[in-house]
Amino acid sequence: MSGTVRAAGCVLWRRPPAPAGGVELCLVHRPRYDDWSFPKGKLKRGESPREAAVREVLEETGHHCVPGVVLPMVRYAAKGRPKEVTYWSAEATRGSFTPNDEVDAVVWLPPAAARERLTQPRDREVLDAALRTLPGAFSPSGV
Question: What structural domains and CATH numbers belong to the chain?
């Protein structure tokens, strides 16, 4: 599709310390849009979507990750142009967050709280798809 903005990101997750169980999901706050979403960004020239997703997670959250299952592509209009975002479910391995110009905060939340915090309904659909793939995750409703 000509003129389509291509982007990639991850539903970044980790296992919380015992005895909590389940998973926690990482959301980023972008002050430019005042929204909560999953880490994502545009592909650079010559970069694969998977490479971009891993790079964006590191840039926006400070965490390294291991991408797993590819999730359904999200399509929407951004600034009047079609945009396609490919997401992966990705386990956080190590790292720490430092606020920057693009992302001023991250939170790690259980699925139900993450679902409530997400700004865009389309991100809730990505969350639901990710939860179906995660080991020990709760149902999409968080129950």
Answer: 5-131 (3.90.79.10)
